[in-house]
User: Fold these one by one.
Assistant:
Number 1:
Amino acid sequence: MRTVMLVAVMAMTATFAAPASAQRADDKFYAKGGLFFSNLDSSIRIDGSAAGTPIDLEKDFGLGSQKTAGFGLAGWRFSEKWRVELEYFRLSRSGSTKIDRNVTVGNTVYPVNGTITSGLSTSIYRLAVGYSFVKGDGYELGADLGAHLSDFSVFVEGTGSLNGAPATARRETRSQLVPLPTLGLYGRYDLNDTFALVARADYFQLKIDKYKGSLVDLSAGVTARVTKNVGIGADMRYVDYGLRASAADFTGKIDYKFYGPFVYLDIGF
């Protein structure tokens, strides 16, 4: 309901605003920042000397399935058809719950009915260089090559036993930077001097040495330029990425999905 109200206010503001004369598909510098109202679905498995327990972080460990986070994006068109973009946002959650089964994380076994505290933080950076192979007065369609850098940090702590020893307070922590190169498509169409439709899609799947990663990143929405250089917008976004690893610093898997609306302020000149 909160998101619907925000979008409604944005639409009303744009409707009664004076038309803008800027051609937004030709903005040389542009930026946007706002809030992401995300729904989350995440699971992990952290292996030790044997395979760990697959864990649904929302259902098994009580992490919240919804999170509001800030984000920012900046772009520069350094020629008529070439551009570069940088984006950043961070999702961080923690929770505590009583588990209903034995859970193995790394080499620690947390027994049934024990209380577990856990957390997952993800910082996401996206850098892409794009080329608009179709570009006209108020519209463009292009492709880009870039990278998603996802910095995972996960912890689990509680009373557990290590290799069959008596139970003590134990904390298992893993951190991993996952760089995934991406291929993407993007498009924009200015409906009039105020409204524009925007969309993008990124995809990649890659296996290097002891790591395997995959990524799908989709978004689509509408922006409204309410003055010559300032606008507002709302996008729906879906991101699904995962990591499989069998390396010394991390062995196991992480699967992470998040989706929901972005509401933002849009600036271009």
Note: Helices lie at 2-16.
Number 2:
Amino acid sequence: MDDGKIIELYLDRSEQAITETSRKYGRYCHYVAYSILRSDQDAEECVNDTYLRAWNAIPPHRPRRLQTFLGKITRNLSLNRWEKLSAERRGAGQIPMVLDELAECVPDGESAESAVEDMVIRDILRRFLRRLPDETRRIFVRRYWYMSSVGEIAKQYGLTENQVAVTLFRARKKLKTMLEKEDIRV
């Protein structure tokens, strides 16, 4: 079923919307959640919570791209769950490492003007990603959106871990430079 019809099911408050969403995007949402949580059970709970959030958000919201909408919800829920779980057990994993890597080129969000700055940063990030070569963009997104390990990325793209690490380092450096040119404090 196409996305427009699925969204219409949500707007009509038909429970079939959840069934169709699960059928079309269940595996994708699970992948997003599992990439962060590394637990099938926790990922499945986040996916189910994603369906509930989508149900509550549509209407009034009408997403332009259902997959992106669901992916963002799933990612945010998964990060929140990870944060809660890590506070409980202080486990090691990709998320602290990924966040540390990005900390060197992304500004601290504690300032009063952070909401406006967030919008500006989103725009800069879109432009930054568009300017990257395809492979570099895919590697960057895999690492910082899906939170894949360097080893997983290397294996997927047939590269060495060192090549992936260097690619990510250079991309972060370019992002930092671009943010600084736009007067974003890093």
Note: The mean pLDDT is 85.
